[in-house]
Design goal:
This protein is mostly beta strands and 338 residues long. It has a single domain (33-332), classed as Methylamine Dehydrogenase, Chain H (7 Propeller). The protein has one helix at residues 3-6; strands spanning 15-16, 25-26, 35-40, 45-50, 55-61, 81-87, 90-97, 102-111, 117-119, 125-130, 135-140, 146-151, 160-161, 167-172, 177-182, 188-193, 200-205, 212-216, 221-225, 232-237, 242-247, 253-258, 263-268, 274-279, 284-289, 295-300, 305-310, 315-321, 326-332. The protein has a four-stranded antiparallel β-sheet with strand order 5-4-3-29, with no helix packed on it. A four-stranded antiparallel β-sheet has the order 9-10-11-12, with no helix packed on it. The protein is globular, with a radius of gyration of 18 Å. The two termini are 30 Å apart.
Length: 338
Amino acid sequence: MKRRKAALLGFAASCLMFPAGALSAELIRAGAPVYAYVFNVGSKDVTVIDTATQEVVDTRSLGASVRWLSNERNFWDGRYIWTYDIVEKRVHLIAIDPKEMRVARRVELGKGPAHSAQITPDGRYVLVNVAGDNVIAVVERETLNVVRKVPTGQFPCDIDISLDGKLAYFPERDQHTVAYLDLASFDILKRVALAEGSKPHMVGVAPGDGSVWVQTAAGGTNEVLDGNTLAVRGSQKLGQVPVAAAWTPDGRYGYITHFKDDFISVVDAKTLQEVKRIRVGQRVANVGFRPDGRYAYATVTGENKVVVIDTGRMEVVKEIVAGQEPWGLVIMSPPESG
């Protein structure tokens, strides 16, 4: 079971799970409200939606632009939301205190852009792809010391972690390859080439079988790779610039957004067949699911809104006005004292 997916499987079993002896933090608390936190890049604020009522309950100023943050990333340490900001084309790893909704910690890492910040399963480090410098930065979470910058291929995009917590996968967009590194040594162990000109740029590990789903910007496909060999197991032709995959809490379907199209592709995780295209609006970024799996929430960046999707019907049932350029989105309980 994928560690962060375990956090969304239900209210009773609701820990963001790490290996024994490592960092552990509740993301969804039994009996607590569950909110969708929507990070608006243009207005640099956060729209807070109660997933029980589908109503906006607050808008909080943040002063940072948060893009590729979702429940598909290991972002929560029990106190801070770990993600990244881009300031004057420089990548900053940031830690957000959700009680006060402010950036509590920050460290500059190099030339942007970036696409992912991931806490390692032992809780010790945060990995960030620094695409403009062709490195993955390894930052000690407690001290913010940059302990290593792993040289990669051209323009490393995104990062996701294997189900067993041993590997980190990342696409190398401008050389059309996908690679993985060992999280014990931070050495790159394997690299494979995809179709020339396809520009793989985003990646996600499926919670059911550990396969690696890679979205290609120029190819307009979702490539499904074996988690060990990186051999292609399947390929789906999608829309323009597919960007992010998120899985229903039961792992049955993957929802894939598009940044130059108006729909979400729903792909059966077993058959790898596209079963539905849900029209939601222009420039769709991230998707998150309510823990019971009944509703999905998607940020529609081009139309300043969040759509609520009934996952049984696979249809939009509500549109909610957000701030300017809603992008990042996470589903979690509010802090106990906030």
